[in-house]
What we know:
- 48% of the residues lie in helices and 13% in strands.
- It is built from 17 helices and 13 strands.
- The strands form four sheets. Strands 2-1-3-4-5 form a five-stranded mixed beta sheet, with helices on both faces. Strands 8-12-13 form a three-stranded mixed beta sheet. Strands 9-10-11 form a three-stranded antiparallel beta sheet.
- A hairpin with a 2-residue loop joins strand 6 and strand 7.
- Helix 11 runs antiparallel to helix 16, helix 13 runs antiparallel to helix 14 and helix 14 packs across helix 17.
Amino acid sequence: MTTTTSPRRAAIYTRISLDETGEGLGVARQEEDARALVATRGWEVVAVYSDNSIGAYDRRKVRPGYDALTKAYESGQFDALVCWDLDRLTRQPRQLEDWIDAAESRGLALVTLNGEADLTTDGGRTFARIKLAVARGEMERKSARQKRAALQRAQLGRPPKGRRLLGYTPTGDTIPDEAATVRRIFALFDAGESLNGIRRTLDEEGVPTRYGKPWTVTSVRNILTNARYAGRSFYHGQIIDGVRGEWEPLVSDELFDLIQARLSDPARRTRRYGIDRKHLGSGLYRCDECGNRVTTWSAGAYRCLEACVHRSRLQVDAYVLEVISERLRLPDAAQILAPVEDAAAPLLAEITQLRQRQASVDADYDAGHIDGLRYRAASERVRAEIDEAQRKLGAQRSGSALGEMLGSPDPAEAFGNASLMAQRAVIEALCDVRLRRGVRGRRTFDPDSVVIDWRS
């Protein structure tokens, strides 16, 4: 009597650490060779798992294909595993021990393209462990050499190797079209646009990213926080003091520092990506009685926190836009409203000190040294000082929305055609808008109920 055994159910795992072209040709070759080996064994391929352009040296790095592979084995979906080499499967000793346990306890057949690794025998396990230790040791030496070389390049002001920045070639030469996109991103944010607003604008206009994928808020923020665009050399997030990059800066040092000051605002970090406003005066206008900023309310109204005012949003916005436009039409607008040219450094330092004060207040409240009432009062004072310092900082920005509008042939028309966030930035730079209570039962709009105080 003869017995037959079912063919093994084989899973294929492929991985390559770096796919520079993004075409997946490396993992495709691994899969093709693995399928040929499975066919010679008479096994059946039940699944293919792949991690393209993902390293295995760093245990913190997520490998979706590998994670799916381990879950599939735990649920009994295969009993043979084929990969190009052991170091394609893992470079982590702990992970190798998991596969050794699988081979010993459940008879997993682990086959590599350069020779079978029989993990069910002591000799095979010893071979696998030694091979992995040698490969990992070489990776550690290679990593140390690469880190030292990268630090040296940064200290010499040379462009880093690896993936290039948008706007530059791998050797640091400028790519004009991409450089224009980078400069525009800085200009839009400087003009008051939100990160999400910039993302939406770029996608709607079909502006390509480096890899042709849609823009994200994170990709916009990464550009705004990359000091290399200001010509600064840095390593592991630390700027190398006194070293300028050999590449052409795309933005000025002053503009870059101003934008970092805005992005590092604790209030913005709390909201993660800042506020992409939908209405002109929300969070901008103030209540004339309590001084709190107003927010949008039901039925198209603005309302303050204490409910002192409840005003029609459309009427107020139309009036404010008209007043600002009329002011920009006056012949002396460019002289009276032009941004001042004082140095930004003192204001940046002041903002940093104020944020340290706010952090101290937060720490005192968390430790129970002050109660909620004192915490609110102290926080409001510091926040008001920060707002004023940032307003002065905003008034200096030569590349701001106000500066661009004042430099246009028709500032009023430029203001009317600007984005909502840019209009808000101009209003904030020029004046303080306060809303008074409306007269109950009055149907016509009263201009005196909106106070506009021009900034000096």
